[in-house]
Amino acid sequence: MSRQIYLPELLSINIKNYTLYPNGLDYTYDFVKGINLILGGNGMGKTTFVNIIKFGLIGLYRKAKDLTRTYKDRAIVKRLLYPSDYFSARKDDSVKTRDEAMVTLIFKIHDTRFEVCRSLEDGSLRAVKIGGKSLEGAIIAEERYERLDEKTQEQYILCQYEKKIEQFSNLTFDDLIFFVNEILFFGENHTTVLWNDGIDGRTDVQNELFNKYFNEPSLDRERQEMQRQAKYYDSLSRHKSEDMRVITKLLDKIKISNTDSSTETSPTVDIIELKGQIETIAGELSSIQASQSEMTREIGILQGAINRDSLQANKLDKEKRQIEREMNASMWETLHPMYNAFVKNIQLNHLCPICSHDAEDLVAQVNDSPMRCFVCGNEIHQSVNEGLAAKYRAIVSAHKALYQGITNKQLKIKAIEETQSRLDNDYREKDLYRRTLLQQLREQEYRRARSSEPDRLQALDDEYNKYAREKAEYQKQSEEYESKALELTSRIEEEILSNVTRFSAIFASYAERFLGVSCSLEYNSYDDRPKRFYPVIDGKIRKQEESMSESQRFFVDHSFRMSILTFFYQSPSFYIVETPDSSLDLSYEKNAAEVFLQFLQKPNIVIVTSNLNNSTFIDHLTSATGIELSMVGLLDIAKQSTIQGSNERIKVLYNGIKKRIEI
Predict the structure, then answer these.
(1) Which of 330, 364, 477, 612 is the most exposed place for a label (fewest CB within 10 A)?
(2) End-of-domain residue from the set 458, 493, 528
(3) Is 156 left (phi over 0), alpha (psi -120 to 50) or beta?
(4) Do residues 109 and 169 make contact, with C-beta atoms less than 8 angstroms apart?
């Protein structure tokens, strides 16, 4: 069962004495459940304004605590912060103010009102009121606060604020940092989260999201601990392997030394050498078994995909037949419904369809003049429904793509099975060699036991055996923990799979509105990576974002984020998007606006920044009926450059939007 979480609902923001906005030194904006536009030209502070909103909620944090910890939690990677002068560095020093620059953000979490006041000078949290009651606690810079232990942190207002966030939202403060930075905010750099897997050092949003929020968080914590323990004991096992190799190398030197002399080689040298060879072969056999298991799993995934594609193809077959019936009915709409059956009877049986007598003349007539009525001879007029024809062509194309995909998957399964067959032969050969080595080992041990002289290297063999036993024990413990981790992973995946259909349907409702083709999400594993969601666009799995155009991948990512917020929806929240129209061509601007308008079917707060340009995207947003509209007019409060101040076109566009919203 997914977690019930409550995200912040923005109510208002007040910015005081911030000289980037010299004409708004005491500026208050009330957010509406609808479209909140932040309009202005380049350099007027659009990005700064939305970052101040984020700052009001979570301070200067740009990344939550990393989940990677040293063994047994001896150390924790600290949260990452923006510099304390992040906002003060953008102030206009030519504008003088008497007091400190501050921001006060008012928002609700689960019907509880929060009023948070922060300094735009040094980034510190100054005051918090919750339900009208002030929090108690000392003030401290976040950078210093992060260096303190948890017990010492409790005396500060930052700690008290974090506890209240968790109390009312069912999210830790780190969870809130994650949601605000990774889900609720699509910045001007247009970084996507759907395809990001954390390889580049960024947060793996899917891993965080579905492991922690589609399940009870305790389940994921337990799994992480099992994985840490498995890695720990595997590391110990590897250390023992290294100790065993040290002994083997030492005996190799002894063997070489004895080759140069007349001294008889100790059986222990050969015994340990054989044990090392057996150890190597055992590792190779284990590797083959792991490869076979992975290939069997891959075949299962491919076969499952074939089954799903076959069901989809059957569904398309039914739709195709239905459309064919509708097209025929539309094409021959003035004919008797049995006319085509009559014609076929004439052509096949050479009989009159009315009296059933031989009718060779009728056969020649319908063959020579198929577009004339076989009774009266008048011309038959066809009616073509272009909408049905286009739908029919799309279904035929999708049907063809599905069957081509099925064929490709079947060929891939065949190739994997051929590889498995080669591995089976390799396994049998190596296993036979292992048995031969074991026989040689028994012979050497028998030789040593029969010797009348004590083996001076027996102690080394005893040490080797000791390391081998310890290695086996550590490896066993590692495998036990890994097995427990896999069991927990399976439980987590079962919970995710139970939500896949619902989550995919939500995603489809957004993505299809933008792209105009069928869309869904597939939860699967590719390229030896953990399972995750992949977008399926027009029947094709898009594993990399580069397989889509710039605007397509941005709005597919918007659809993914909006799906997350819709899935977890408990009360109105917000979604901030910077310049969403920057990558759009004219044909997609209306579709893009409709995606945001659909997100607002449930009460939500959408905050959109935009330059004043010739895009029709803003026009489509502001022309929607039944949607609340409001705007932050940066031309009114920010400093304009000489070029912007003298550009009449910018003023016309700005005033037109402003007038439309005020009406």
Answers:
(1) 364
(2) 493
(3) beta
(4) yes
